Amino acid sequence: MLLTVTQLIANNFPSLFFLFVFVFQMGKVDTTTQKFKRKSKINEAQSSEEVSDFQISAASDFGPLLDTVPINMEDCEGNTHTRLRKSSLCSSDIVEDNLAFETPQSLKKSGLDERLSDSRLSQSSLFADSNMEIFQPSPSAQCEGASKPPLVPSLPEELEDLTHSEVLELCQNDALALHLCKVWTDDSLLLTVFVSNKTTSALHAVNLVFEEAEYFQILESPTYQFPVIEAQSVERCQKCVWMDKICTKGILSASVHCQSEMETRLQFSITLSLLDFIRPMEMTTEDFGRLWLSLSNDVKQNIKMSSSQDSLSAALNTLQQKLKLHLVDTIGNEGILACQLLPSVPCLLHCRTHSGMLALWFRSPCSALPDGLLYQCQKVMEES
Question: AP-4 complex subunit epsilon-1 C-terminal domain spans which residues (predicted)?
Fold first, then answer.
């Protein structure tokens, strides 16, 4: 019927026919175009919804990282509405598949790769807006904490100017370290014992006990107690010693013990010689002569002099320095010297040189003292 009407119009109204054809064709184009536009909008909406869905899902997965990155609140609201619509159309499996296969491309499109790189902040940027300061320990400070230097005891100022030995280690264990220094005072041998606490806690009631010796006498008490030795610190005690019986060398034994978490005990011994107790004895030539005549115990001995001691003055200087003798006088090839055994036992020495030999003549009220000093004279003359 449409064809019949078309023919009738074409025969009677040619101009109207062409108008009808034009309108008909326009209607077809509009319909096709409209269909194309609807399909394009749907695809764009789906693509936008997928990207928005990934952005919100990624933001929830990387929430702690993205908290530091500014996000537009309007974008968040729009993405939230899109996600709600997407949830009603798609199952959770489809969303997970889209994330698994579209993550690299979606990251590039949405710019999340730049946001994630910006969120990897350094320690200083994490605290940039706060009042906190970050301090990195220096290598020297770490080394110092790892290993502390050992405790090194030293003499007090009042004893440093006196003649003394080096500070020597006696013994040690995990808790204690013991050191000794000999100080030769005018009237005694002063033994300075250092007790070092190596632990990180205080030690209480630390006792030092000297044992009874055959040749030596500890003045006052042979014991001493440290009430407390603080952690990583050193305490000292001083004991005066005399020689009771003449000997060339002798041993003085002692021990240190304390009761902490477990009992700690250290034993040690000190070697003492006759020369530790010999001091110069000053007197005039007249006093020397009178005392010499009053003494009966004497010892004589000839010693061969070395090439470096071919003179009387060289020999006397060696005896004076090594044996702590006082040079009273020199007359020609003869010299006289005097000393005492602490506390007050005198011993006199007459020296004379002849034919490369040194003649020694000792006198003392103590019969054993001249023999002991003669041995020491022979020793120092051979060593020098």
Answer: 279-382
Express as a percent the part of the chain with pLDDT over 90: 49
Under a CB-based contact definition with an 8 Å cutoff, are residues 284 and 291 in contact?
Answer: no
How big is the CA angle at 48 (ends 43 and 54), to the nearest 5 degrees? 130
**CA–CA gap between residue 264 and residue 258 (Å, rounded):** 5
Class of the CATH-defined domain 157-275: mainly beta
281-383: CATH architecture: 2-Layer Sandwich (3.30)
The pLDDT value recorded for residue 42 is 45
Which has more confidence, 255 or 263? 255
Q: Where are the domains of the chain?
A: 22-121, 157-275, 281-383
Q: Reduced to 3 states, what is the DSSP secondary structure of residue 119?
A: helix
The whole-angstrom separation of Cα 193 and Cα 268 is 11
Summary mean pLDDT of the chain: 74
Question: Under DSSP, is residue 295 helix (H, G, I), strand (E, B) or coil?
Answer: coil
Q: What residues pair up with 207 in beta bridges, in sequence order?
A: 225, 257
Contacts of 256 (CB under 8 A, 6+ apart): 176, 178, 195, 206, 207, 208, 209, 265, 266, 268
Residue matched to tokens 């994630």? 116
**Which residue, 247, 350, 366, is CA-closest to 300?**
350
| Neighbour tally for 114: CB within 10 Å | 12
